[in-house]
Amino acid sequence: MRAKTILRVLLIGPFMAQADVTIVNVATPTIHADLGVSGAALQLVVGGYLIAVAVLLITGARLGQAYGYRRAFLAGVCVFTLASLACGLAPSGLVLIAARVVQGAGAAVMFPQALTGIQRLFRGPERVRAISRYALALSAGAVSGQILGGVIVGADIAGLGWRAVFLVNVPVGVVALAAAIRYLPADAKQPARLDLPGVAVLSLAVLLVVVPLTLGRETGWPAWAWLCLAASVPALVAFAAMESKAAQPLLNVHLLTRPVVRWSLVTMAVATGTYYVLLFTVAQYLQVGLGRSPVESGLMLVPWVAAFGLAGQLIRRLPAAMTRSLPTIGCLLLAAAYAGICAGLQAGVHTPAFLVPLFGLGGLGLGLEFATMAGHLTGAVPVRYASDISGMSSTVMQIGGSVAVAAIGAVYLDIPRPGAAFAATTAILAALALLAAAAAQRATAQRPTEREGTEQRPTEQRATEQRAAV
Q1: Which of 29, 370, 374, 385 has the fewest CB atoms lying closer than 10 Å?
Q2: Cα–Cα distance for residue pair 174/247, rounded to 1 Å
Q3: Residues 99 and 211 reside in one and the same domain
Q4: What is the pLDDT of residues 81-95, one digit of tens each?
């Protein structure tokens, strides 16, 4: 029971972090009207948060290992909550952008502690259940942000307008802090060491990737965007070289030499990337193409989230022998959902009603893939690599989503008719889901050796984990 309570507390982090990715999108028109900020500044209000999260996820995961995941979670929630307050009180666009970047930094620290905690506290079927709840928190956060954003802005609570979408985080953050102080077990004393040169080089490398992908499309892909993307390659190579020689590396890059890790990360990045694209394109299609409100647009994705949660319950009831094939099956269901949407649009069906069952099928497929693949990935390496796996998986999904939205979002925006644009993008998403299925097949075909997956932990670490789980 104690471990489940700890999990509930930790899942507040990814839920809030994901909700704030989408909740601000609905508020951008009123922010523009109230503060008089430019279109470029509005991009930074949205993109500054995403950039900070992507850049600092791996560092946030390593902070949890260096200082303890309880301390890291508390620090992340504090920063996120205070920055949310600063966003809600911001007197100008510049202050709002700066506060959003700080808010993203807080999210990057609290976010990865959930997956680290899962890997440390749960084993076997219990870990699968925990990961399914983690996956549901991510998906529910993204959709809840869309719905709450529309509701809050439309209600104009206490005349606050757009400011309420940030201020709502304050009471939630206070509750999260109180719960974390009450229920998270004390961290074991350990040396606080962080590879600062690694942090600097990795942050630069991720910035060079994420900044142009986040801002490039809206600015017409200027030369600096392509130069940044080109420069990211040598920066990543330099980081890998540094980490391979570091005594206490920020990231154990040798994990990427294991095929099970590589293919699992590819599967998760591609499959989750299609979901990020769907969030972007379905909002455009429903609101611009069909004239639906932001709240209606968000509610249309409730079947996706419900089926995503149902996937975790199904996995619990299936024989363990089937678990290995579920990531591939999930990706195939995801591909079928996207193909069904495309076929319906091509046949001239443009009512939202036909999307509901297909969204349910897609959510079920992604839920099966994510929960079982994350379980396969975390079970393939020793527990001492928990922060590495948490940081790597979160970062590759964030970058995968940025790449997918930049590339496929551009395809959608280049096609003038919304129905045809949505059909074209869902066809691409179906193809990507099939690629994810192929990668999942490769990942699950790799069986970790006993030494890799069940390496004995030091006696002190085992004792600490056992006390935390009691």
Answers
A1: 29
A2: 38
A3: no
A4: 999 999 999 999 899
